[in-house]
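TASK: fixed-backbone design
INPUT:
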């Protein structure tokens, strides 16, 4: 039985004070509940502050990105070991905003996946097609390419450190979520493809989150799909009540 995993991606929002307040509200709202795994991913400058708030609670902490080297002359970048050092258990890589707005390619993202795993982080690898690709019936080809390249060199024994977030680009921040059926169809494909790449047993245990305009009112139907193992939540994770409603939908 795969445990649902709900993650808040705060993107480039909040302030130090607002982030700490939001994290405290999430901690309080989730309580001791252990039927859903919950994590928040604040902007880098607020990680240490939020780490203090979530320390000793069931709420995990994640980075929104990493640079795939331990240290070095990479001005402005953050290494996986730094994320671990500041209290992160998770890291998001390959987010569509980084792929499409910052030009990150599959090979670079693969380096990030491997660097995150090597540092002991749980890596949330985001994949997803654009609207044009979906309209052109290329969804599966795109997911295939992103999985094959993103997971190159990742073997079954370390796949437990990977979570896939299926995030159709056309659904992110647009208010137009994939239907539960579209999400289930894509997740089925992802699990099958990962099975071919890393073995069926590892793929059966793999957590596949859906992301893209998940809100309090659509979370239950999305999360009730058999292969939707959680949600990566952007906009709705910035309001504690909305985020907690999505977590509660995962409990059901
Ligand atoms: C995201 O940032 O990963 C995301 C899914 O954003 P939103 O929930 O706002 O669509």
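OUTPUT:
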């Amino acid at each position: 039985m795969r445990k649902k995993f709900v993650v808040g991606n705060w993107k480039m929002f909040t302030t130090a004070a607002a982030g700490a307040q939001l994290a405290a509200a999430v901690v309080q709202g989730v309580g001791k509940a252990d039927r859903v795994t919950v994590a928040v991913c604040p902007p880098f400058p607020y990680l240490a502050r939020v780490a203090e708030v979530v320390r000793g609670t069931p709420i995990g902490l994640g980075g929104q990105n990493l640079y795939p080297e331990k240290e070095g002359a990479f001005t402005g970048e953050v290494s996986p070991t730094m994320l671990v050092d500041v209290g992160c258990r998770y890291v998001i890589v390959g987010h569509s905003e980084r792929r499409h707005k910052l030009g990150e390619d599959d090979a670079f993202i693969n380096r990030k996946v491997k660097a995150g795993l090597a540092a002991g982080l749980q890596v949330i690898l985001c994949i997803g097609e654009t609207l044009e690709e979906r309209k052109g019936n290329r969804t599966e080809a795109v997911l295939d390419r992103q999985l094959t390249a993103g997971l190159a060199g990742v073997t079954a024994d370390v796949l437990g450190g990977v979570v896939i977030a299926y995030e159709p680009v056309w659904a992110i921040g647009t208010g137009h979520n994939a239907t539960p059926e579209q999400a289930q169809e894509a997740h089925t494909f992802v699990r099958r493809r990962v099975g071919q790449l890393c073995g069926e047993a590892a793929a059966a245990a793999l957590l596949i989150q859906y992301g893209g305009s998940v809100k309090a009112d659509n979370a239950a139907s999305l999360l009730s799909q058999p292969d939707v193992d959680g949600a990566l939540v952007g906009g709705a994770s910035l309001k504690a009540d909305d985020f907690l409603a999505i977590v509660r939908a995962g409990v059901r």
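COMMENT: DSSP finds eleven helices and eight strands in the chain.
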